[in-house]
C-alpha cells in the first residue's frame, strides 16, 4: 500500500520560492520587446536573485517584487547578456549586462540542433560511410563542451565537439556502440560543421548492451511485496515550499544551475545552514585516446542540473508515502518547461537510533531512527546521478550522491592494449575517470556569524603526561582567514572541521558547533600545467572556505563553458584572504570518486555512493534525541506501547541477581529491539 501526494504551493509566494512558469513567461515577454535581440535569440536559464529575496525578507527591499536573471544568447548578433528582470506591478524593468557570447551553457535545444547539423553534413556523412554507416538516423550525437581544448583557429567561436554512437534500431542502446575516432567540431552559433576529425576506422561493436527486461535472459523470480504503510500519513508537514519534521524546519528550492536546493535549515528552533546544494560537478576522463582526451565536463556549469532533472516515479525512484514537488525550468526557446515530480520527500526507517540494556537489572530502552529524505535525479547523457539529503532526529545532516547509468565508452581494435581503462564488451572499453562534486554549504550555526576550525588527533609526546604511551590529544586549529582555509582530508590524523558559532556557547564553555566530515575524496593525477590540472583548480583541495559574497556563487566559476582554464572560481576568490572569524562564511566541500570501471558495471552501473555528513558537535549539551518517544508498537503491534522499553518484570522467570554479565548474551534476554519493525527497512533509498 502506498500513498502519493502532489505538493501544490500555496498562492502566497515566499521570496525564496522557485520561479514560476508565469514569472518566466512575463520575463521573456519583456525581453522580446527590446529591439537589441534578434529572432535568433536563445536562453540559458532563469535564476532567482536570492540576495534580493533575502533583502525582501529583511525588509530592506520592497515586498512583492521578484528579481530574476535571464541569460540570453543572440546568435544573430553573436552577443549574450545577463538581463536582470524586476517583476511586480508598475516596477517591472530590465537591466542589461553584456557577457562573452561563447560562455553561457549549452541548451538542450542547441544540442539537438548540433546533432541534426552533423547528420546533414556531407563531410560527416562521408566519414561515416568509411565505417559502413549510411543511415544517419542510426547515429546518436552528443554535443560536448570543449573544456579547454578549443583549437586556436576557432578561439573566437562558440564551439563544441560531438561524441558519436551507433544503434541498430530505435530500441538499441547506442551508448554500448561507440564510434571511435570520429569527432565533429561544431559552431553552436551558426550550427556549421567546421570540420570532422577522422582518426582511423575502428570496428563498431556488434554486441548489444540492452537494459530492457529480458535482454540478458530470463528475469529472476519477482520479489514478494514490500509495502511501506503509514496509514495516518507522513510525519512531516508541508506549507508551500516550507517543511517541518521532528524539530527540523527548512525550505525546498529548485534552480536552473543546481537543481535541488535547501534553504534555512534549523533544528529545534536554532539555525544550522542558510543554504545547501550540489553546486557543481566536474568529470575528467583520464585517457589520451582521440575520442576521450577532451572529455572534462562542468556538468552543472555547462549544461545545468535543472533541465537534466528526471520526473520521479512512485515505487521506482522513491518508495513509501511520498510528497512531490514539480520543477520548472526555462527552455532554450524561452518557454517554461515543467518537470513533474522533480523532487521527492519521504520518511525512511533507519534501524536503531539509540539503545542500552542494563544487564544487571534486565532493564533497557531502545529508540528507532527515522530520517526525512529529500531527493532528485539528473541524467547527463549516459550517466545518472541522484542527490539525497537526509535529516535525522539527532540533528545530523547527510548528503548521499548515487552514481549510476551508462559508463562513457570508446572503441578499440582487436588485439590493442587497453592501457587507461577496462574492457567491458567486444571492441568496447570504458576509460578510468573521476567525479568531483562541489557542495556549497552556507553556514549559519546558531546565527550568521561563524568561524571554521580544523580538528585532528595527535599522540601525546610528553612522556611525563603519558607514561603509558596511549594518550591522544584532540587538537583544534582555528582557520581565521581564507588563505589557510584550503584543506585536505587526512584519515591518518582523523581530520575533520568544526563550524562554530561566533556568539553562542554550550554549558561547558565551548562554542556551539557542527562537525563536517568528508569520507569520500579523491586526488587529481593530471600533469601540472595540463588543461585538466588548470581547468578546475577547486578539485586540488577537499574543503575551501570563503567569506560570503553575493557575486561568488559557483565553485568552478560563473561561466566555465569556453573559459580560459582556471580564470574564475573559489581558488581565485580566496586570494583576497578575507577574515573567516565571526563572519558569514561559505564552505565549499569537494567529494568524489576515482572510477576504475569494472565489467560488472556494464551495460549499466549498480549504484556507487559518495557523500558527506554534518553532525552537532557541542551544539547541544547532551543527546538531542532523548525526547524521542518509545515506539508505539513492536513487530506486529502485539505487545503494547512499552514493546521497546525493556522491563525486568517481563523476565521474572530469569533471576540474574548478583551476576555481572555485561557483554554476554543470555538465553532469556529480550531481543525485540532487532531490526524487525513494522514495514521493514525502506528499500527505496
CATH class of the largest domain: Mainly Beta
Largest sheet: 12 strands, mixed
Helix content: under 10%
Which class best fits the helix and strand makeup?
Answer: mainly beta
Uncertain spans: 1-11, 634-641, 648-685
What's the architecture of the largest domain in CATH terms?
Distorted Sandwich
CATH homologous superfamily assignment of the largest domain:
Copper amine oxidase, catalytic domain
Shape: globular
Radius of gyration: 28 Å
At CATH level 3, the topology of the largest domain is Beta-galactosidase, Chain A, domain 5
> Treating each run of at least 4 consecutive H or I residues as one helix, how many helices?
7
Mean model confidence by pLDDT: 91
Report the β-strand fraction as a percent range: 35-45%
